Structures are given as C-alpha cells and as structure tokens.
Amino acid sequence: AQSVAQPEDQVNVAEGNPLTVKCTYSVSGNPYLFWYVQYPNRGLQFLLKYITGDNLVKGSYGFEAEFNKSQTSFHLKKPSALVSDSALYFCAVTGGKLIFGQGTELSVKP
Amino acid sequence: EAGVVQSPRYKIIEKKQPVAFWCNPISGHNTLYWYRQNLGQGPELLIRYENEEAVDDSQLPKDRFSAERLKGVDSTLKIQPAELGDSAVYLCASSLGQYYSTDTQYFGPGTRLTVL
What's the pLDDT tens digit per position in B27-36? Predict the structure, then answer.
C-alpha cells in the first residue's frame, strides 16, 4: 500500500533563510510524487511533481524538491523564504490514486 | 483559463438534511475527482470519474453519498441525510485524463460544510 509521511506538523523559518519541508514515502513500484500548497480558505495549488529523470525538480514560486530513492524522501526546498510562503504544504504519492500526507504548516516570520 | 469552479463555497445545515455540491472542471479535462478534507488532515479521495463513468468509488459511503457526472462535464455530489461527522471541506479536482498516475490534478476552492 502507498503512504506518505510528513514528520513535521509545523516549520518555522525567518524570511530570507532557506526552508525545507520534509516528506518520506512508501510505495510498491515507481513513485510518482507531488507537492501542493494550500492557503487559508482556498483549494490546493500544484507546486511540482516527480515522475522520472532528474532528481531535482523545479516548480512554481521558486520551490524545488529533491527525490532521493535510497532514503525514500522527497523534501521540498526553497533557497530564500518569503512571508507570503506561509501556508499549509502537502506531499502526495500516487501509483493508483493520490495519497496525501497530513500536511506541514509553514510559518515564515519577517 | 478558468480553474475548477465549485459552489457553494460554504454551507451550514442541520443534521439529517440533504445537501448538494456542484463542480465544473477545467475545460477539456476528462477526469474529475471528489475529495473530502477533514480539519488538520490531507484530502481523501471519495470518487473518480473518467468522462461519465465512475471508475473508483470505493471510498464513497454509498448509504448516504451519491454523485453524478452527466454528459462528462459538470458533477454533483450529494449527501442525504447529512450527519455531524460529515462536516469537512469537499474538494473537486480535475485532470486531463491522459495517464491517471502522473496527471497533475487541479483543485477547486472547495465547499466548507458544517453540519449542526
């Protein structure tokens, strides 16, 4: 069975600092991995996905994610955080249907 | 290009009442999904349509939930009767339908249901 874990409920970062939001996965077969962001009272917005190829995936709003097969991880990163990045971030895996993690609340303080 | 449209955005009902949610997917998207998102959790799939056909409704509580996608475009999700535990955000999403596992799903803003 597929599953995804986001070990941190909340991540706090100062504006301008790099940020990382962690995600680990468990799948049988090839992993297809996604990151979505959710702002208050809004639906999920697609950030990026890994299907195959380069382990470093670049996405929207300056975000990128690194696929690591040996560690079964797909961490979301951004070199310099903005206050406007504060939101709820979801990692998801699919191999039959999209399975979401519990979400990580990112708070970026000025 | 317009995104996924959902209505209403908010709904408050008494328990045992019926409620319906409407979704209009992105134009040209053949696959439509309904998800339920409970507070503090990630969305969970309720049903997936490929055009008019419900191809995965294994997570839909069929005793009280029903869905339809007439003409393979708009979709309606209904709950009858609603229970207190149905309070959640109901999200609709759509994708092109080229390859299910890797297609990007685009989400609407959701309907926040409160059952009193």
Answer: 999 999 999 9
